[in-house]
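Form 7-S
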Amino acid sequence: MAMHRTVSYVQLGRIAYHEALQIQTLLKRCMLDKIRSPRTSRPEVQDTLLICEHEPVYTVGLRHADYLASEEQRLRELGADFHRTNRGGLITFHGPGQLMAYPIINLAHYTKSVRWYISQLERTIISTCKDFGIAATTSPDTGVWVNDNKVAAIGIQCSRYITMHGLSLNCNTDLSWFEHIVPCGIKDKGVTSLTRELKREITVQEVVPVFLEAFAREFDCSVVESAEKDLARISNFESCL
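Output:
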């Protein structure tokens, strides 16, 4: 009999990058602690999908030594925050009008393969775009593309098959923020958004339910809404120490 999988999603609204990162880290820590010590009294955390938007922020992945303090200062002077992270990938931008999806899931419930996981995230984005009438594809470069323009970026981190970080999908993002960087280190290619491709305003709020349906299809799971108060209870800092 096939395993019935459920993912709980939480809509965080617009939230600073560092706040979302703290929630991810705490959820992942709880999940890892439960694996290491199954009999612990710490709260059970089911697979969770965080949905949000960010205030303007540039983030860099594991190769953040490539970005000097002077570069960080230049980007901060544009009015954006700047964070060095432990995800894969190089520099990118996150901000209003961009759907951020952070799955904190145990791949043991699915397929214990990071390559499979990234492929499913790509398929979820492609399916979402298709539902809006946009033909998106993968390429040898990372992310999801419409022709030579990136519409979504993927950058994850995984330890003991527990995932964090995730993906960003440009809905009605101000794309001018990308002009100050080489997104994901890929030269001679551009960025796009659902709004630009369809020539009408496509908000994050419009995309979220379509994205959640695509996620459920591609990961063969049920996606159910969880209240922020439940997340606050589960990810209480002391409870995971």
